[in-house]
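INFO batch 0412 | record 1 of 1 | parsing
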Amino acid sequence: MGPPSSFDLDVERLYTQHHSWLKRWLMKRLGEAADADDLAQDTFVRIMRARRPLDDVQRPLAYLATIANSLLINRWRRLAVERAYTDALAAQPEQYEISAEERHLLIETLTQLDELLHGLSPRVREIFLLSQLDGLTYKQIAAQLALSVDQVQRAMLKAFDRCYASQFE
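INFO prediction complete | emitting C-alpha cells
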C-alpha cells in the first residue's frame, strides 16, 4: 500500500482536530454516549465515502454538524418508521407475527420508502400516495385535488422517475 493520499491526510486531520467536539455536539442531542460515538463515526465514514476535497472547507465545525445533523434526521425518521411499524404490528392478530430477520428487512424497506417519499415535493408525494396506496385513478385524483389529469400524470412521472433513480443511487 502506498503513502496516504492528500484526501486521507485531510480526513485524518479533520478527525484529530474535531472528533471530540463532534461527539460532544451529538451527545447534547442524543443524550447517550454510545449513540453519539456511532454517529460521530458515521459522519466521518460519510465524508470518506463522498471523497470530496476538504481543503476548501472554511468552517469545519459547521461542515461536520451539517453531515451529523443529516444522519440524526435519518436516524429519527427510521425510529419513527420502526415505532409506526411496531404499533401497526401490535394491532394485528398473532398470526401475523414474523421473524426478526423479516422484521429487519421490512423496516429497512419502509425506511427507504420513507426517504424516497421525503425526496418528493409535498404535492407529488400526495398524488403518488393517492394513486399507489388509495388506488385512485388519475381522473379521481385530479378531481379531488382540483388539478387537470395532465398535472396528475406529470406528478406521477416525477414520482416514478424518482423511484427508478433511487434504484441506482
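INFO post-check: The CA atoms of residues 69 and 94 lie 38 Å apart.
INFO record closed
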